[in-house]
C-alpha cells in the first residue's frame, strides 16, 4: 500500500521507478496530479497553478502563485541569437523538428552555467523551459508561415500569450477570446503530465546519465513526435478527413477490424476504461464549438458518431478500447484556429512541466543510478571469425 493507492504484487514487479507526481488508475479511468483528481484541476485550476503543483507537490497560496507566475513571465523571452537557429531550417520543416533542435540548442546558452546538483539551478532550468517553450513553439509556426518573429506580452495569461505570439502581427493585434483561451489553458492542464509514458521515460533515461535538462527535454520532444504517442491528435484529424462523412464509418470500422489501420485517438497502454481527459475534452469541444456557433461542425459530429459506434461495437469493447486524450483535442485546437502542424508542439509545450518535474524528482534522489534496462539475448550462439576469402 503506497499513498492513496494500493498495488498488487504482480504490478510492483513491472514498475520501472517510484514517483510522487502522478497516479493513473487504468481500470477505473482515473488520473491524479499529486493526489488531486484531474477533473477538479481542469475545472478550478489554471495551467501555471498546475505547473506549480506538479513541480512542488502542493497547491500554491496567493503569494506563491503570484511569484511563480512572475518568474515564468520573466523567463519567456528568447535570446535573440536563438532566433538564428530557426533560419537553418527549411521553411516547411515540421514544427516538432524545429522544437527538438531549438530546445536542444538552449543547452548551448545555459549548459555551462548549470550545476544540476544545485537545487536553485534546477529551479531556474524549470522556469526557463516552462516559460520558453510556448515562445519557441510559436516562432516555429511563424517561421513556417514566413511571418516576422513575435514576442510575449506582459499582462496576458500563459495561454493568451501563446495565442498572441502565434497570431498577432505588427499590423493586427490578435483579439483573445477568453472562452478559447480558457479551453487552451485546460488543454495544457490535461496534457501536463501522465506518469511514465514513453516521452517521460525517455526524459528520465536521458537525465539518469547526468545530461543537462535542455538536452533531456529535447529527447522527450523527439519521442512525443511519434503518431502512437503525441502525434495522435494530428492523426485523428487526418483520419476524420479520410472518413469524410457518417455514411463511410461502417467501411472504415471494417478496415480497422481487418487490421489495415488503427482507430486513432482510441486505445491506451494503461487506460482500459475511458481516459478521464477524453471526457473533459469532449465537454470542452462542445463549449468551444457552441461559443463559435459551430455546434454542427461536421468533424465534431463525425467524431461523436464514430465514438458512439465504436463504444457499442464488440470488437472495441472486448479489447477495452476507449477514446483517449487525443480523440477530441485536435477538433478543439482546429476550432480555435490552430493548424494541425501545431497540435503536437502544443502537446510538447504542455508536457514540458511533466518532463521537468520527473527529471527534477529523479535528479534530487540521492539513490538515483543511471538507467540501464537489461535484455533477453536471442541472437547467434558463440562462433569464430571466418576470413573474407573463406566466406561463400
Ligand atoms: C498518448 O502512455 C501514455 O500515457 C500516453 C499518453 C500521454 O498522455 O502521455 O496518454 C498520450 O500517447 C495517448 C495514445 C495516443 N495514441 C493513439 O491514439 C494512437 C492509436 N492508439 C494505438 O496506437 C494504441 O491504442 C496504443 C499505442 C495507444 C496502445 O497500444 P497497445 O498497448 O498495443 O494496445 P492494447 O494492448 O490495448 O491492444 C489490444 C488490442 C490489440 O489487438 P489484438 O492483437 O488483441 O487483436 O487492441 C488493438 C491492438 O492491436 N488496438 C487497436 C487500437 N489500439 C489497440 N485497434 C484499433 N485501433 C486502435 N487505436
UniProtKB/TrEMBL annotation:
Family matches, as SUPFAM superfamilies: Citrate synthase
Functional pathway: Carbohydrate metabolism; tricarboxylic acid cycle; isocitrate from oxaloacetate: step 1/2
Annotated catalysed reactions: oxaloacetate + acetyl-CoA + H2O = citrate + CoA + H(+)
Q: Which GO terms describe its molecular function?
A: citrate synthase activity
Keywords attached to this Swiss-Prot or TrEMBL record, sorted alphabetically, are: Acyltransferase, Transferase, Tricarboxylic acid cycle
Q: Which Gene3D superfamilies match?
A: 2.20.28.60, Citrate Synthase, domain 1 (1.10.580.10), Cytochrome P450-Terp, domain 2 (1.10.230.10)
Q: Which Pfam families match?
A: Citrate_synt
UniProt similarity note: Belongs to the citrate synthase family.
Question: What's the protein name?
Answer: Citrate synthase
Species of provenance: Chitinimonas lacunae
What taxonomic lineage is listed for the species of origin? Answer: Bacteria, Pseudomonadati, Pseudomonadota, Betaproteobacteria, Neisseriales
Q: Which gene encodes it?
A: gltA
Amino acid at each position: 500500500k503506497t499513498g492513496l493507492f494500493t498495488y498488487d504484487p504482480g504490478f510492483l514487479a513491472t514498475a520501472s521507478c517510484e514517483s510522487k507526481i502522478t497516479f493513473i488508475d487504468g481500470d477505473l479511468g482515473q488520473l491524479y496530479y499529486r493526489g488531486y483528481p484531474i477533473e477538479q484541476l481542469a475545472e478550478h485550476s489554471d495551467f501555471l497553478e498546475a505547473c506549480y503543483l506538479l513541480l512542488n507537490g502542493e497547491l500554491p497560496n496567493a503569494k506563491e502563485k503570484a511569484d511563480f507566475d512572475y518568474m515564468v513571465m520573466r523567463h519567456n523571452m528568447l535570446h535573440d541569437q536563438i532566433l538564428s537557429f530557426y533560419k537553418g531550417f527549411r521553411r516547411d520543416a515540421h514544427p516538432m523538428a524545429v522544437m527538438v533542435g531549438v530546445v536542444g540548442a538552449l543547452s548551448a546558452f545555459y549548459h555551462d552555467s548549470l550545476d544540476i546538483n544545485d537545487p536553485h539551478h534546477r529551479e531556474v532550468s524549470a522556469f526557463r523551459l516552462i516559460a520558453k517553450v510556448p515562445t519557441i513553439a510559436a516562432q516555429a509556426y511563424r517561421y513556417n508561415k514566413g511571418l516576422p518573429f513575435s514576442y510575449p506580452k506582459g499582462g496576458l495569461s500563459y495561454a493568451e500569450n501563446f495565442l498572441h505570439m502565434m497570431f498577432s502581427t505588427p499590423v493586427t493585434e490578435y483579439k483573445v477570446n477568453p472562452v478559447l483561451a480558457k479551453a487552451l489553458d485546460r488543454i495544457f492542464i490535461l496534457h501536463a503530465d501522465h506518469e511514465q509514458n514513453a516521452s517521460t521515460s525517455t526524459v528520465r533515461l536521458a537525465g539518469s546519465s547526468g545530461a543537462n535538462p535542455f538536452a533531456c527535454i529535447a529527447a522527450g520532444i523527439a519521442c512525443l513526435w511519434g503518431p502512437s504517442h503525441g502525434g495522435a491528435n494530428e492523426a485523428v484529424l487526418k483520419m476524420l478527413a479520410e472518413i469524410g462523412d457518417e455514411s463511410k464509418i461502417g467501411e472504415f470500422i471494417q478496415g480497422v477490424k481487418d487490421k489495415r489501420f488503427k482507430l486513432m485517438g482510441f486505445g491506451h497502454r494503461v487506460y482500459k476504461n475511458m481516459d478521464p481527459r477524453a471526457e473533459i475534452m469532449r465537454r470542452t469541444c462542445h463549449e468551444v464549438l457552441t461559443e463559435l456557433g459551430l455546434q454542427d461542425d461536421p468533424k465534431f459530429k463525425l467524431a461523436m458518431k464514430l465514438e458512439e459506434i465504436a463504444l457499442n461495437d464488440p470488437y472495441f469493447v472486448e479489447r477495452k478500447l476507449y477514446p483517449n486524450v487525443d480523440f477530441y483535442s485536435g477538433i478543439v485546437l482546429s476550432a480555435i484556429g490552430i493548424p494541425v502542424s501545431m497540435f503536437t508542439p502544443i502537446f510538447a509545450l504542455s508536457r514540458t512541466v511533466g518532463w521537468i518535474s520527473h527529471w527534477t524528482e529523479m535528479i534530487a534522489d540521492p539513490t538515483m543510478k543511471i538507467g540501464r534496462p537489461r535484455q533477453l539475448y536471442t541472437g547467434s550462439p558463440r562462433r569464430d571469425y571466418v576470413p573474407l576469402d573463406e566466406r561463400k
